[in-house]
Specification:
By secondary structure, the protein is α/β, with parallel strands linked by helices. Helices cover about 25% and strands about 25% of the residues. The structure holds zinc ion (2 copies). One zinc ion (ZN) binds next to helix 2.
């Protein structure tokens, strides 16, 4: 399994010199495996660059794209790339989108409501490619892959996902409300979703001082991301959903702080950056993973 980051920011795109190394596009990660079509985690502005990669050589001339998207929730930073995905201009392309049930109306109606005039010049139906939009079941299959979804504390209906294929798994929790200042409690549903994953991609928006003034904005500190990873017994943690105000140097500092806080509780911690590809292969579960799964 290969996991490639196309957008790693939270909240809003922030392309500038100060964010060039980690990147300024919002949430979009692509999982590939030889036995399945690509699976896209979130459809933030990074999606456009994945589409460009496909159009620039990933697809043969005239070849249509087939894939799946798992969308955590409908905040702008997680869906704003939707209308700019080049494969949709190709007849026969198809993207099956799964996301959270909404409080009012269907997920499909909610997505259609922001891809239409006056917000965008055309509707989804005007694109040559096909889109299906489905409320994500708790467990479902994509060919040989198993997908699990679970509710995650945030603001509004939000899911985390776990994708398992070929004996490896990646867990995706891009936005996660920390329960309080300095809190280490993790919702058991989230722990179960992440238990023993080979890679956890997790919200790491704030430092402790920022969290003090933004404690109810739906996010967490880098230390809390470490807590989730350690308690769930995951092997690797990718700090994700970087705050748009954090330049590259600040993200470096937060990565160092996360590693200090983790000690030997998490095998490897990285800060996600645009263009980073993580290759995952099966490994024996850790004792912490076995405990979290139980
Ligand atoms: Zn977000
Ligand atoms: Zn959000």
């Amino acid at each position: 399994m290969q996991v490639t980051f196309y957008g790693v920011r939270g909240s809003t795109p922030c392309a500038c010199d100060g964010t060039r190394r980690y990147g300024g596009n919002t949430s979009c990660v692509v999982v590939t495996h030889p036995d399945m079509d690509p699976v896209v985690l979130d459809l933030g502005t990074g999606l456009r660059y994945f589409g460009n990669d496909l159009a620039g050589g990933g697809l043969a001339p005239g070849e249509a794209f087939q894939g799946t998207a798992l969308v955590s929730h409908l905040h702008w930073d997680h869906v704003q790339g939707v209308p700019f995905f080049k494969p949709w201009l190709c007849e026969g392309s198809r993207l099956d989108v799964y996301g959270p049930a909404q409080e009012d109306g269907s997920l499909e109606d909610a997505v259609r409501s922001f891809i239409r005039p006056p917000y965008f010049p055309v509707t989804i139906d005007d694109l040559p490619g096909q889109v299906t939009i489905t409320e994500a079941p708790e467990v479902f299959s994509l060919g040989p892959a198993e997908v699990r979804s679970a509710p995650v504390p945030h603001i509004g209906p939000t899911l985390g996902f776990r994708l398992t294929v070929g004996g490896t798994s990646v867990a995706f929790v891009p936005d996660h409300q920390q329960p309080g200042v300095g809190a280490t409690y993790v919702d058991p549903t989230v722990l179960e979703l992440c238990a023993g994953a080979d890679l956890l991609i997790h919200d790491a928006q704030f430092d402790n001082d920022e969290f003090l003034t933004k404690a109810d904005w739906g996010h967490c500190t880098v230390e809390y991301a470490v807590e989730v990873a350690a308690q769930a017994g995951v092997r690797r943690l990718a700090l994700f959903h970087h705050d748009p105000s954090h330049g590259d140097g600040r993200v470096d500092e937060l990565l160092a702080a996360a590693r200090d806080y983790a000690g030997d509780r998490v095998e490897e911690i990285v800060a996600a950056s645009e263009g980073l590809t993580v290759a995952l292969s099966p490994a024996a579960p850790t004792p912490a993973a076995a405990a979290a799964a139980g």
